[in-house]
Inverse folding.
């Protein structure tokens, strides 16, 4: 059972406060969605959770992020990388590389300095490539992939890191509707869910509603609400979060949110 | 792993190419020697004319090899550091500092040994300037764009000083100044310092090599995969700068090798820096040794600056390989 505890976190960009004293605990078995307007601080929060922005934790003296009960600031990047993986919003593909090599780079934290990926590593990666329907592209250059294919390859790299805690910044960005649902079904399937703590930034309220059991709402004024999705996903809350009228339609127990 | 087998082939091939380039360098020149004569004179202690020729050529060939290796290694490291395929060892202005120092030394007529030392000191000063200025006065977060901009601007500054010195130098000094600026190995008779720096830098960079495979895909991405990027990038900057300083001190600024050799190796499908770095060293070393052999044999006894030859050989080879790889993609 892995967990990520956020204690009294304050996020600041220049002088603007993005969130004030956030307290939340994410544990294995839970699927979290982070919702908020553009610029509300979703990516900053995700990067802070991954320990990439230590200065945000040092903003206030009481703040801390504990990864498996140890402050993330005291853990080396290598140790963190074995417990927590993050899908970034975009990729820097400047130099050529094959799809297979790009997927295998996710094994980096598990290999020693002079170790090459062995058959087990390759099997893990090939299986994931198949899950994401990229198995025919193994030798292709990454610059020849479409936006959606590149995104799915990013997910393969992340999943091949085999960390219990997963943070995903807009995982369905660039994906068509079929791949969006396939991916979210994969991430929320029972066996996967029992072994992972998944947190993702989403822009689609309905996907969050359909697949996530917990949500973290980030308001414009630095206020946050975190908890059970069915409690917090109300028309009233979402209208305030997005600053735009949103209504909820319920039919046969399924609810859908639409923007008017 | 087929990839590893390919890598062994590549390295073996390049080792053979390196030895071949050194042998060719010993055989050719203003008087051509047979292979057997070269071998005899290398082994014997007889102080014949041929023996002296072989010894002279050996020193120069080894200097060329070390310089080529240093430039290729510095280029490969610099390209990862600033994550830009156009980066070369001179992009941060280190050669500019060395050149200004060397030109001043030529201008006031210092002897050769002092010229070399002065050039090295110039390179170190340029290196320190880049280090301090790219870090900023408030010790802000290190980033490659800032480093690149700082380096490019400093390089332009050094360029202006070089032009200034050239404008005010007497005609008698201009020839040797131009040779130094275009890159020239005719003063390089002591390969040892270059080789020592090359071997140490190669070993140290091989210790970092696997992290470079991740860093080249982005700093934040590398951090998420467990790489401590801040310290890694400082080590890279230091290693690349030292290699450049050593190369420039040995032979002035020889263009092209540092930019193109790492790409040549990448075009063979090698992207793992544990192979890419040693392969670049071997390839850069043999290329420069061959180029230098051409530069002193082609119009012998007149020697042309080796930088001209590296460009004339390298550009078509590189463009050909680039076209071929586009087709196969």
């Amino acid at each position: 059972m892995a967990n990520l505890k956020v204690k009294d976190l304050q996020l600041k960009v220049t002088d603007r406060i993005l969130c004030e004293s956030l307290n939340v605990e994410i544990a294995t078995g839970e699927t979290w969605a982070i919702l908020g307007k553009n610029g509300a601080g979703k990516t900053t929060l995700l990067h802070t959770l991954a320990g990439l922005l230590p200065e945000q934790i040092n903003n206030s003296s009481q703040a801390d992020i504990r990864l498996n009960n140890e402050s993330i600031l005291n853990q080396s990047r290598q140790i963190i990388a074995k417990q927590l993986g993050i899908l970034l919003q975009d990729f820097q593909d400047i130099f050529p590389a094959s799809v297979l090599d790009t997927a295998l780079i996710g094994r980096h934290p598990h290999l020693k300095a002079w170790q090459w990926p062995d058959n087990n590593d390759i099997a893990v990666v090939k299986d994931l490539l198949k899950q994401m329907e990229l198995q025919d592209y193994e030798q292709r250059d990454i610059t020849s992939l479409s936006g959606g294919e590149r995104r799915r390859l990013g997910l393969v790299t992340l999943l091949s890191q085999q960390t219990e805690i997963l943070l995903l910044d807009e995982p369905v960005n660039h994906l068509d509707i079929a791949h969006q649902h396939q991916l979210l079904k994969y991430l929320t399937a029972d066996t996967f869910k029992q072994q992972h703590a998944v947190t993702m930034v989403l822009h689609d309220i309905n996907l969050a509603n359909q697949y996530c059991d917990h949500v973290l709402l980030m308001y414009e004024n630095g206020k946050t609400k975190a908890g059970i999705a069915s409690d917090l996903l109300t028309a009233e809350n979402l209208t305030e979060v997005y600053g735009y009228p949103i209504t909820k339609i319920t039919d046969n127990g399924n609810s859908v949110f639409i923007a008017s | 792993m087929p990839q590893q087998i390919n890598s062994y082939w590549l390295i073996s091939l390049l080792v053979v190419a390196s030895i071949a380039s050194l042998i060719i360098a010993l055989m050719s020149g203003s008087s051509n020697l047979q292979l057997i004569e070269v071998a005899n004179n290398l082994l014997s202690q007889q102080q014949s004319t041929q023996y002296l020729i072989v010894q002279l050529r050996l020193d120069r060939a080894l200097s060329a090899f070390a310089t080529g290796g240093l430039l290729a290694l510095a280029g490969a490291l610099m390209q990862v550091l600033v994550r830009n395929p156009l980066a070369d060892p001179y992009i941060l202005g280190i050669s500019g500092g060395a050149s200004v120092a060397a030109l001043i030394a030529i201008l006031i007529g210092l002897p050769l040994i002092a010229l070399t030392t002065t050039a090295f000191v110039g390179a170190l000063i340029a290196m320190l300037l880049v280090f301090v200025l790219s870090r900023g006065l408030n010790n802000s977060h290190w980033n490659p764009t800032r480093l690149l901009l700082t380096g490019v601007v400093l390089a332009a500054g050094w360029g202006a000083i070089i032009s200034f010195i050239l404008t005010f130098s007497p005609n008698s000094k201009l020839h040797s100044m131009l040779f130094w600026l275009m890159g020239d190995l005719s003063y390089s008779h002591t390969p040892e310092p270059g080789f020592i720096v090359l071997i140490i830098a190669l070993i140290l960079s091989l210790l970092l090599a696997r992290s470079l495979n991740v860093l080249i895909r982005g700093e934040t991405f590398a951090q998420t995969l467990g790489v401590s990027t801040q310290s890694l990038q400082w080590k890279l900057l230091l290693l690349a700068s030292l290699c450049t300083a050593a190369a420039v001190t040995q032979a002035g600024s020889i263009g092209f090798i540092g930019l193109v050799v790492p790409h040549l190796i990448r075009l063979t499908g090698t992207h793992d820096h544990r192979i890419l770095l040693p392969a670049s060293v071997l390839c850069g070393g043999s290329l420069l040794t061959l180029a230098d052999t051409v530069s002193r044999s082609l119009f012998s006894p007149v020697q042309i600056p080796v930088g001209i030859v590296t460009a004339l050989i390298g550009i078509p080879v590189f463009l050909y390989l680039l076209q071929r790889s586009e087709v196969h993609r």
About this structure: Chain B has a mean pLDDT of 87.
